[in-house]
Batch of 2 targets.
Target 1
Amino acid sequence: MTFSKLIFPIFGLAVALYMITEQMIGSYTTKSMYYTFGLAIPVVVLSLVQIYKEFVANPANNSETRDGETDQKMSSEARTRFLAFIATTSICIVALPYLGYIISFSAFMVSTFLIMKMRKPVKIAALVIGTMSVVHFLFVVWLGTSLPKGSVWG
Amino acid sequence: MPEAVFDGLYLMLNHIWLVPIGVFMGICVGAMPGLSSSNSLAILLPVMIALPPEQGLILGVAVYSGAEMGNSFPAITLRIPGTAASAVTAIEGYPLMQSGKGAMALGICILASTLGALIGGTASILAAPLISTVALKFSPIEIAVVILFGITVIAMISAGGMVKGLMAGFLGLLLATVGTDPVYGQFRGTLGLVDLFDGLTVIAVLVGLLGFSEVLHYVINPSSTDETNAKAGNIINIRGIIEGFVLVLKRPVEWIRSSFIGLILGAIPGAGASVASFIAYQQSMSFASPENRKKYGKGSTDGLIAADSANNAVVGGSLVPLLTLGIPGSASMAVLLVVMGYHGLPVGPTLFSQYGEIAYSVLWSQFAGAFFILIMGTLLAYVAFYAARINIAVIIPIISVMCMIGAFAKSGSLFDIGVMFAFGLIGYYMKKNNYPVIALLLGLILGGLFEASFFRGLLIGFDSPLVFFERPIAQILWALLLVTLLVPPLFRCLKRRNAT
C-alpha cells in the first residue's frame, strides 16, 4: 500500500468532517444542516471504507492504476522533478502580482524546461518568446483579458 | 419545425469561421499523445469564455470533434492511443501501419469519424427538441432525481468501482455547498476566507482537475514518443487515404450501427467515447463472419470503422442531455456547461425556449465540423506522424501557463490560481488511483442546481421527502436508478453461481 492511495479519501474525510463540525458548532438552520449532513455523512462512510480497503488489501498485490501502470513508488528522479515543478509553480503564483505575467511566466517556463531536462537555449528562448507573444496578443490585446501586470510595470 | 432551427442555422453560418479553427486545434491537440478533448477544452476555456456564448460553444464543439478524430493519428502511426477512446484504433490501426497500409488506416479513421459526426448531428437535431419538450415538464423534483441519477451512473461505470465513484460524486456535491447558502445566506465551508464567500470558482477547479492534473502526470511520467516504428516505405499519400474512404463507404452497416451505439452511449453521463468505441468494436466483432472475426486484433478494417464512427457520434449524443437537461455527459461537456453558465445561459430545458437559436447553432455546427474534419483530417494526416513525436517536455510549460491564465481569467483573482493548483494535485491523485474525476466535476457543477431543486421540491411537498417518490417521472427515474445499481451485481452473482 502506498500513501498516495490514501490522499484522496483522507481529503474527502477532512472536508466532510470540517463541514459537519462547522455546521454543528455554528448556529445554522436545521434544513441547511441536514442537507450538509446528508452529503457529508456518505462521504465520511465511503472514505473510511476506501481507507479500510487500502489497509487490508494485500500490499504484495500491485493493483493496476491509471493507464495500466502498476502501483509502484515514484522513482527518486521523478519525485525530485515533481517537487521541483511544484516549487516552481508555487513561486510563479506568489511572484505574479509583483513581477507581472510576462516575467513570472517566462521564468516559470525556463525553469520547467530545465526541470524536464531540456538544455537547448535557442529552443527554450524561441518557445518562451513564442508563448508569451501568443499570450499577450491573444489574451491581452484581442480578448481583453486582464492579466496581472505587477509592481514592476505599475 | 420551430423557427429557432433556422435562426440557429443562420447564426452558425455567421460564425462558421470558428469551426475550421476549432477542428484544426482539436486535431492538433488530439494528435499529441496524452492530450484529450477534455484537456484541450479546459486549456482553451479562457478563450471560450472571452468570446460571445454562441462563438465559445461553437468553438468548443469543433475542438471536441477534431480532438476525437485527432486521437486516432498517434494510435495508428505509433501505437500510442491519445486517450482510452482510441485504444481500439491502436489495436487495429497500428498493424495496418506496420503492413504498409497506414494511409488507408488514416483514411478509414477520417471518413468514419466524419460519418459518425453527421449521424450524431442529425440525431441530436431531431431528438433535442423532443427531449426538451419532455424536460419542460420536469419540476424541481425530477431535476434533483436526474442529477442524482447522472452521478450514480457515472459512479457505476467508473473504472475504480462504485465506492470510489460515489465518494467522488458526493464530495463534488459537498464542495458545491462551499460559499454562501443560497436560501439562508449563511457562509459554509469558507475557512474564514473572503475569497470563498462566493464559493469555489468552477472554472479554476475544472482547469485544475482536467488540465493541470495531466501536466503533473507528465512531469512524473514523461512519455517517450521518440520511437519510430514506422517503416521507411510507409509513406502517407492521398491514394492510400482515398482507398480508406472507399472501404468505409463499402461498409455502411458497420458505421451506421456503430454511430448509433456512440450516439446512445454519448447521452449517458460518464459513458463517453472510450466506452462507446469498445462496445461498438465488440458489436462489430460479434456480427462479423467467422472468417472476418479472425482478423480482429490484427488489423481489421471493420473494427477500425466501428471504433472511429462511434467516437465521433458520441459528440452528438452528449450534446443532447447537456442542452436539454443541463447534464453534461462527459468532462468535455462539463467545460461547455461552464461556458454556458458563465454567460448566464439558462441550463436545462428552458435553453431551447429562451435561447433556441444558440442551442440550434451549436447542434448545426456539428455538420460544419464533420465537413472540416474530412478536409483538415486529410491534410493533417501527412504531418500526423510528426505531431505524435513532439516531446512532452515542450508541451508541459505551455499548458501550465494556459492553465494559470484560464484559472485567473474569469475573476482576476490569484486565489483562483491557487485553487486550480490545489485541484490539479487532487485530480492527479484521483486519476492515479482510479477515482472518476468526472463524478467530482459533475457534483461540483450541478451541486448548486441540485440543492436549489431539492429545497424547492421539499417546499412543493410541504417538507415531506416522500414527494421525491410520488411523481410518475421521478418514479421512472428511481426505477432506472435501482436497475442501474442492482442489475450488474445480480448478473455477476448469477454468473458465478452458474460457473460453480
Target 2
Amino acid sequence: MTCKDVSDRLDDYLDGALSRDAREELEAHLGGCAACSREAEALRGIVDGAAALAREIPPRRDLWPGIEARLGRRGVFVSPSVLAVAAAVIVALTATLTLVVSRPAEAPGPLLLPDAEPTRVALRAPGRGVLEAEAEFERAAAELLVELESRREQLSPDTVLAVEQNLRDIDIALREIREALHEDPANQGLVGLLGSAHRKKIRMLEMVVRHSPTLS
Amino acid sequence: MEDLPGNVTPIRAGRDAGRQEEQALVSRAREGDVAAFEQLYRRHVGRVHSLCLRLARDPQRAEELTQDVFVRAWQKLHTFRGESAFSSWLHPLTVNVAYSAGRSRQRWASRIFATDDLSSFEDSVPGFDPAAGMDLERALGTLPPGAREVFVLHDVEGYRHEEIASMIGVATGTSKAQLHRARRLLRKALTQ
C-alpha cells in the first residue's frame, strides 16, 4: 500500500469502515511510515475532539417567549399565524381571480369612486369580484407590513432599502395595470396580471417577515 | 439471559420512566397543550441550539433557527408516531430547518436584490486570534459551508454518510468527500 493509498483510506480507517484485510494492510504501512503515522494521529485527534464537543449548548437567553408567541395563546390550540393567513388569502384570491378571468366578460359596471387612497384608480371591472379580491390582497399585505414594521429596527439598512424599492416597483406596476384596466376593463389578461402583481407583493413581504428576527 | 450487574437495572428503569414521561408530554402537546410542549422545549433546546449554532456559525441566527425548529416541530407533531425517542425525530427536523434556511436565505436574497451580490447577507466567518491559538470549535467556523455541515453531522453528531446524504440531499460519495475535505482543512487550521 502506498502513501497515496493510505491517504485515500484514512477516513474509512478512522471510521471503522475498512475490511479487516484492508485495515491490517494500512496499519502495517503506518508502522513503517512516520509521515502517514503522523497524519493518521492528527486526524484521529480531530475525530476524537469532535466526538468530545459539547452536545448541548443552551442559547444565551430564553427563547420560549418568542416560540410561544408564534404558537398561539397558552393553553389554546394554535391559531393561524399571520403568514398562514396570508397563504390562505393567496389561495382563495387566486381562485377568485381565476374565476373572474374564466367567466365571460359582463357589461362594465358603474365606475367606482376612488377610495381613501388618492393614487388608486377605480376599476371599471368585469364584475365587483376583482375589486373585492384586490381589497383582500391589500388587507393581507397591510397585515404583513404592520408585522414587518414592528421588526424594522432589527432589519439591516440594506434589507430595508431593498424592501422599499421592491414595494415601490410593485406598486407602480399595480397602478399601471389598473390604469390599463380602466381603459380596457374587459381585458382578462390584465386582470390576471393584477393578481400576479398582488401575489408577488405578498410573497415578498412574507419572505422578509419569515426571515427577519422578532422582538422576543 | 444472564442477569446484568445490579446497577444497570435502575439505570434502565430510570431511562424507561423518562421515556414514558416524555411520551406523555408529546401526547398532550399533540392535543394542543402548549404547557406540555414547553416542557419538551426545555428538555431539548440545548441539543437543538448546539446543532443550529454549529451549522449557522452566528449566535443570533442560531437562536432564530432554534425558534423556527420548535415552531415547525409544533406544526408537525402529528407526524411523530412515538415509536422512537422524541429526539430521534426532532434532530433530523432540526437539520432540515437549519439546512433549508441557509439555502433559502441565498435564494431569497438573490430575488430581492437585482444583482448577484449577496455579500450583505453572508455571515461573517468568525475570526480568530492566532496568538491565542485555535481550538476545534472555533476552527469549525472557518470551514466552507458544505464541509462544515457534513463534519458537524458526521463527526460531532454521529450520523452515518447515508443518513447525512438523505437529510441534506446529496450523494453519499459527496458526503464522504466533504468530510475528507473538512478533516484536512481542520488539521491545517489547528496546526498553523
